[in-house]
TrEMBL record:
GO cellular component, one term: ribosome
Entry's transmembrane regions: none
GO molecular function: rRNA binding; structural constituent of ribosome
GO biological process, one term: translation
Protein name: Ribosomal protein S10 domain-containing protein
Organism: Peronospora destructor
Length: 89
């Protein structure tokens, strides 16, 4: 099973040009060591957190915990095939 690592770049005070340069440097290091970049995200304003208030407490059930794609893949366990289920019990 391949091992995945997550790299987060956060630099709120720098201009986008500098952040892009840092990303290019990191990407070149990763690929030069034989690594692969699976996906990139630019969350921009979405990364800001908001805290719930009593008025929004009824809406809490609509929010789900975000699980990154790399973690979903790592936690995936396939179902046991039907013809093997009897042997397990």
């Amino acid at each position: 099973m391949p091992l995945y690592k997550q790299v987060l770049l956060t630099n709120l005070k720098s201009p986008p040009k500098d952040v892009a340069r840092v990303f290019q440097d990191c990407a070149s290091i990763i690929t030069s060591q034989g690594g692969v970049i699976r996906s990139t995200e630019n969350r921009g304003g979405e990364a800001r957190r908001t805290f719930s208030t009593p008025r929004t407490s009824e809406k809490r059930h609509s929010f789900k915990q975000y699980v990154p794609e790399w973690k979903r893949d790592a936690l995936f366990e396939p179902d046991v095939p039907m013809h093997l289920q009897d042997k397990i019990k």
